[in-house]
Write a structure and sequence with these properties.
430 residues; single chain; 11% strand; 8 strands; 22 helices; 434 Repressor (Amino-terminal Domain); 3-stranded antiparallel sheet
């Protein structure tokens, strides 16, 4: 197979070969002729013929233009699944040759500190030892993923994951920064202090009701029941415009009644909180079996409202997980899969959107970034080996490495997640 790529330091440059049959299928699906595809990627029709015959492989720039013309990801042409990208895949997806990537990196402090060159970047991508000044300094090398992420236009976590796939025998290049729990902001505490006792009770009970609703949504996912979008379920029913003796009280009204603050002044209190930007109110129509169609008032907490309520309740402010860590929810999913051991977790045991963030071949939304590729669906064969009877989730090699590398940090950050099931995880075959 021919390519216009050069040699650097006597070593062939890494290329990503496209599958000829896949290219033909994607071109026909898009309705493009060979000539039109050639025009869009800037080559001759004869070169497209060579691509489809497997006699040539495109350069990174042409591969990127080809994917754009065919309305697909580069991975669909190369056969690299989402969540399985190595460092070379990220560079090809960015449409950069080694020389172009090095030129961009040499403009950065870390690129200069590492004396980055095409042979060194090629060795890094191919998992070979990289020799040179500062390449044994973990602090200096640990700055490189952020530099790569910037020129490839991807999140740093994608570079870290790709690095761990490309260099499986090395420790992770990035350690998350130790972040002390942040106190609530002064503005949130000031907003709480500005509320009267009644308003504080309302805001606190609305926060508790939202959390209860969030738990209910999680339980629905667990039992494979339909779950509305967060933008919908976060709008909490406050009141129905009908006699209470007929329609009863909403759950939020019952909570307020237990606190002795549900009375004709409820509307004024809610509007006062809304004027401060702590709540948003809305109305809709619902059907009630006793009265038919009835107007309903709903309240939704704003981000500022949650911060204010947490400050008043003495809770720490929410934190984003440090790079390259997962959120507490996704870490809990990883622990479940890891705790299932070599046999894996039944596919139906994972519901909701977790696979879109963690599963090989997934991405979290249309046009979004690929998943982390930490878990994969593994087929389970019948006892006679003749057919597949089901699928189970197992950790991928990089998923296993991620858990082992960052287990202590996760335990420190998310102490409520029970990790006793992952003791000795490094001994589990991947």
């Amino acid at each position: 197979m021919k390519s216009s790529l050069k040699l650097h330091g006597g070593m062939p440059l890494p290329v990503r070969v496209i599958a000829p049959s896949r290219l033909v299928a994607l071109r026909e699906r898009t309705g493009l002729s060979k000539a039109e595809l050639a025009r869009r990627i800037g080559v001759s029709t004869r070169m497209v013929f060579f691509y489809e015959q497997g006699r040539h492989t495109p350069t990174p720039q042409r591969l990127q233009r080809m994917a754009a013309a065919l309305h697909c990801d580069v991975g669909e042409l190369t056969g690299v699944l989402r969540g399985e990208e190595g460092l070379v895949d990220l560079r090809f997806a960015a449409g950069l040759t080694l020389d172009q990537a090095v030129e961009l990196l040499r403009r950065t402090p870390v690129g200069r500190d590492l004396c980055l060159s095409a042979p060194r970047l090629s060795a890094l991508e191919q998992g070979r030892p990289v020799l040179g000044r500062n390449w044994r300094d973990r602090d200096v090398v640990g700055r490189l993923p952020a530099g790569l992420a910037k020129i490839y236009d991807v999140p740093v976590r994608m570079v870290v994951d790709a690095w761990m796939r490309s260099r499986p025998d090395e420790s992770a290049p990035v350690r998350p920064r130790r972040q002390p729990q942040r106190r609530s902001s002064d503005s949130a505490e000031a907003a709480w202090q500005s509320l009267n006792e009644r308003q504080r009770i309302y805001l606190g009970e609305i926060l508790r009701d939202e959390r209860m609703t969030e738990t209910e949504m999680w339980m629905r996912r667990t039992h494979h029941l339909p779950v509305p979008r967060p933008a919908e379920w976060r709008k909490l029913p406050l009141a129905l415009h009908a006699p209470a003796e007929v329609v009863g009280y909403t759950r939020l009204q019952e909570r307020l009644r237990l606190n002795g603050v549900h009375d004709p002044g409820a509307g004024a209190t809610v509007h006062a909180l809304a004027r401060r930007g702590l709540l948003v109110t809305s109305t809709d129509l619902v059907h009630h079996p006793e009265t038919g169609e009835v107007s309903r008032v709903r309240v939704e907490m704003t981000r500022r409202g949650r911060a204010t309520a947490r400050a008043g309740l003495g809770e720490h402010a929410e934190q984003q997980p440090g790079v390259p860590l997962l959120s507490e929810w996704l870490w809990g999913v990883m622990v479940r899969v890891a705790g299932a051991g070599p046999n894996g977790l039944d596919r139906d045991a994972l519901s909701g959107r977790a696979p879109f963030y963690l599963g090989v071949g997934y991405k979290n939304r249309s046009g979004g970034r690929p998943s982390r590729g930490f878990i994969d669906e593994v087929p389970v064969l019948a006892t006679d080996g003749t057919h597949v009877v089901g699928y189970r989730w197992r950790l991928t090699p990089v998923g296993l490495r991620h858990v082992v590398e960052y287990l202590d940090e996760y335990r420190r950050r998310y102490p409520h997640v029970d990790t006793t099931s992952v003791v000795g995880l490094a001994d589990i075959p991947s």
